[in-house]
From TrEMBL:
Protein's recorded name: DMT family transporter
Keyword Hydrolase: no
A Pfam entry, by short name: DMT_YdcZ
Source taxon at top rank: Bacteria
PANTHER family referenced in this protein's UniProt entry, alphabetically: INNER MEMBRANE PROTEIN YDCZ (PTHR34821)
Organism (species): Lelliottia nimipressuralis
InterPro entries associated with the record: YdcZ
Transmembrane segments: 36-56, 68-87, 93-116, 128-145
Keywords tagged on the record: Membrane, Transmembrane, Transmembrane helix
Amino acid sequence: MTFMMIVLAVIGGAMLSIQAAINGQLGSKVGVFKSAFLTFSVGALITALLIFFFEPKHATSLLDVPKWQLLGAMFGVPYIVIMVFAVQRIGTAVATVAVIFGQLTMSMLIDNFGWLGNGAIPFSMNRLGAILCLGIALFFIYSSNRSKAAPAKEMRHQATVNE
């Protein structure tokens, strides 16, 4: 079951990268906030249908949970807006790895201190190694983008001059 959850999480991550690439293109054409609005509107509609047809009854409703738990819904908005904006400027790979770096770092803090009602999982050297490796990956991917961006920019400039 653990392996299946890891596979599903990897698939979810792949879908986020696809979403970021598509939303980056859409945002450059119609605007960052309109792209984010579409994401949340369609997402809300699909989620409402999933709730209606598949969600089992729960003893607790959204109105009964501690109010701070409802704040989690607000954190998706900055993520989508930032990704639509960032993908246009730094590319899907750099934006995605940067997001994963932020997720990994914050999730390890949450685990270590048991924040937000989660069980504590102590920080370790292996976890530090994972953060460092991802930071190095981010550096190399970003560096690769920068070295490729200069010739591509010159080619676009040359094509404009030739027209």
